[in-house]
């Protein structure tokens, strides 16, 4: 049986709008809170616009989970991470792992906005021989710390990375973003137990808490609640935040570690497909590819958002 989300519309790359997309860069030094938030909002809008064009052109992608995580990625890369293209060789720079690797197009677009990859390469997403695979590959992009896609591996790798940082006595922090459905993978809980046990205060686990997974709500599949209590029981300091509020995200990330001697867990309340009216919190958009009309409608909504 064919389900709606498996239907891939016939898209001709040349017909898909391909807006010019330049490097946006970090929030300028000395920016006020208001200026910083305006910079991040503008960047997130551009990243979302480019992302939907890439998914449309490729005829594949995970637009729902990309739109839920873009504000987090943009805030990290353009504001909070001590990491820029010129710092890639610095052992003390921060590390970032996108454990929910299916949101690859959101990562690539953000990396282009931050100057790690050439924005012109975004048009090769998922084409043969492109470095922009359907899931991020560390062998192809130097800014990608770990190859991800099979769920449940990014957080364990991040724990190892953070432990190495602690053993090195380095100031670097490790950030990792997991999906909430992804937390159903048992490997995450082994990793969290290890992070708590080793008191990895240099680790920040961000949970993209959109309450949807592939084809169903998380609570109807294998409920995570009470999530904050479980994370605390594993030794984490838990912070909850609106995952689309750039100002709030900046404050949370600036405050990592949130408690001395403890790893930080950020439960970021998000919506899949945010902020597009016909995608938001709609499970059909996990894996669905927008038609050309839907791309136009989404771009229009973004412009006015
Ligand atoms: C081990 C593994 N099982 C299944 C999949 C297929 N898969 C890709 S995304 C996804 C749902 C993930 O849900 P969630 O972590 O909540 O991601 P989000 O809602 O942020 O897209 C599934 C089952 C996979 N990538 N890896
Ligand atoms: Mg989810």
| Total E-strand runs | 5
User: What is the count of helical runs?
Assistant: 9
Radius of gyration: 18 Å
**Residues in β-strands, percent:** 5-15%
What is the domain tally? 1
CATH-level-4 superfamily name: Thiamin diphosphate (ThDP)-binding fold, Pyr/PP domains
The CATH architecture would be 3-Layer(aba) Sandwich
Level of helix content?
A: 25-40%
Task: Write a concise keyword list for the protein shown above.
305 residues; alpha/beta; Rossmann fold; 9 helices; globular; disordered N terminus; binds thiamine diphosphate; binds magnesium ion
In words, what does this structure look like?
The protein is of the alpha/beta class. It has a single domain (34-303), classed as Thiamin diphosphate (ThDP)-binding fold, Pyr/PP domains (Rossmann fold), CATH 3.40.50. 37% of the residues lie in helices and 10% in strands. It is built from nine helices and five strands, in the order ααβααβαβααβαβα. It has a five-stranded parallel β-sheet, with helices on both faces. Helix 1 (33-58) crosses helix 3 and helix 1 packs antiparallel against helix 9. The chain is globular and about 50 Å long. Mean pLDDT is 94; it is low at 1-13. It binds thiamine diphosphate and magnesium ion. Magnesium ion is lined by residues 179-181, 210, 212-213.
């Amino acid at each position: 049986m064919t389900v709606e989300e498996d239907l891939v519309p016939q898209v001709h790359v040349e017909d898909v709008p391909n807006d010019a997309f330049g490097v946006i860069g970090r929030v300028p030094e000395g920016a006020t809170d208001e200026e910083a938030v305006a910079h991040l909002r503008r960047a997130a809008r551009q990243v979302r616009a480019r992302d939907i064009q890439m998914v449309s052109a490729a005829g594949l992608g995970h637009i729902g989970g990309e739109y839920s995580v873009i504000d987090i990625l943009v805030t990290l890369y353009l504001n909070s991470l001590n990491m820029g293209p010129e710092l890639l060789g610095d052992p003390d720079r921060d590390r970032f792992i996108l454990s929910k690797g299916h949101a690859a197009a959101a990562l690539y677009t953000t990396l282009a906005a931050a100057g790690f990859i050439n924005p012109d390469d975004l048009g090769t997403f998922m084409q043969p021989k492109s470095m922009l695979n359907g899931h991020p590959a560390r062998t192809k992009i130097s800014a990608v710390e770990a190859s991800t896609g099979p769920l449940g591996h990014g957080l364990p790798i991040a724990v190892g990375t953070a432990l190495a940082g602690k053993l090195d006595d380095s100031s670097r922090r490790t950030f990792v973003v997991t999906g909430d459905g992804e937390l159903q993978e048992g490997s995450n809980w082994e990793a969290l137990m290890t992070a708590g046990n080793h008191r990895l205060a240099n680790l920040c686990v961000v949970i993209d808490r959109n309450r949807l997974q592939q084809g169903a709500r998380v609570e109807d599949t294998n409920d995570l609640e009470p999530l904050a209590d479980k994370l605390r029981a594993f030794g984490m300091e838990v912070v909850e935040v609106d995952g689309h509020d750039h100002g709030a995200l900046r404050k949370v990330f600036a405050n990592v570690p949130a408690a001395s001697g403890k790893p930080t867990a950020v439960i970021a309340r998000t919506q899949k497909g945010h902020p597009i009216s016909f995608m938001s919190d709609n499970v059909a958009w996990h894996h669905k590819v927008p038609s050309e009309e839907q791309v136009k409608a989404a771009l229009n909504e973004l412009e006015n958002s």
